[in-house]
Amino acid sequence: MNKFFKIITLGLLLVAASLETAQAARLKDIANIRGVRENQLIGYGIVVGLKGTGDGKNEMMSKSMVRMFDKLGVKLEGQDFASKSVAVVIITAKMPAFGKAGNPIDITVSTVGDASSLAGGTLLQSPLRAANDEVFAVAQGSIVIGGDPKDAHLTSGRIPNGATIERDMTADFATRKMYRLTLINPDFTTAARTVLTINKELGGHYASAKDAGTIDIITPFSYENRGVELLATIESIDINPDMKARVVVNEKTGTIVIGDKVKISKVAISHGSLSVKVGEGKKAVDEKVAVLDTGVSVGELVQALNKMGVGPKDLITILQSIKAAGALHGELEVL
Questions:
Q1: Are 109 and 46 in contact (CB under 8 A)?
Q2: pLDDT-based confidence at residue 3 (cuts at 50, 70, 90)
């Protein structure tokens, strides 16, 4: 067995009786509630206090410093500002779905000029805006560069709790008459199972599937003006999501991930000195010949080929050929 050959086979050792239970997931982990999401924020700022690793002579930095000093009452009109202790940066952050004024959030700071390092720098007060150009947070603080100093990416750093939310994200969920769920991986079977499970939990026909990825839920009378309790009840429900049969291979690393539903029909394979036959046939004596039953899973095929010393590149080629012949029942995704 090639020690660099990594195979992850999902579900091969699970018995059919326990498969459904093992695959159960909370609804909150496979679906999103429409309107409940993070919001991206972005801003432009100045980092000072750098130890000779700043932008130096940079028009963008110069104009930014002149503008900043002007707001502070110091006039530098007509002068160029050049300093290796200053750098202009882009600031990014994610605002939680129900972020409230006064709550802190983490931010990431990245250079946009010629600065070689932000280590030891301090970000000056900078507004963070949403896509609608409205300011939702203000950032400031000392930059932290993580990782090994020798291998660290010095032109980007983080400031934990480096920004403070200035405006609430308005979202009235308590009084809604209807809620919409969207499945992360749309699937008709999963949507149907979800509707049946929700209706069973709520004791009535309150949920309905609009398509493979959209489920609408009408607020029951018993949960009127209690939307938070309703969603807490729904999102904790266990659902057995269905999935397409799929094989994912990474040619660079030799990693193969195989779903338990992937099957192979009757097929004969010849690859160099190797021969594999799936279906009818007698067991061959030659160690380079393998005979497998019809309907064998890809996992069993991989195990048989692995015992015969087949390397990752050859195995990936064989899987691609089986798929091209129409004998592999499932999607084959090559990364």
A1: no
A2: very low
Token couple for 76: 């530098």
Check whether residue 276 and residue 193 sit in a common domain.
Answer: no
Sign, CA dihedral 209-18-230-180, equals negative
Buried/exposed code over 186-205 (b: 16+ C-beta within 10 A; e: otherwise): ebeebbebbbebbeeebeee
Cα–Cα distance for residue pair 111/265, rounded to 1 Å: 55
Strand, coil or helix: what is 168? coil
- The pLDDT tens digits for 28-84 are 999 998 888 888 999 999 899 998 888 877 777 777 777 877 777 777 666 677 778
pTM higher than 0.85? no
Residues 65 and 159 in one domain: yes
**Angstrom distance (rounded) from CA 277 to CA 37:** 50
Q: Give the C-alpha separation, 112 to 91, whole Å.
A: 10
Alpha helices in 111-179 (DSSP H): none
* One domain, residues 63 and 115: yes
Mean pLDDT of 253-274: 73
Could you list the residue range(s) of the whole structural domain that residue 289 is in? 244-334
pLDDT at 20 over 60: no
Residue 2 backbone dihedrals phi, psi, to 5 degrees: -70, 120
- Residue 182 sits in the same domain as residue 220: yes
* Cα 270–chain centre separation: 39
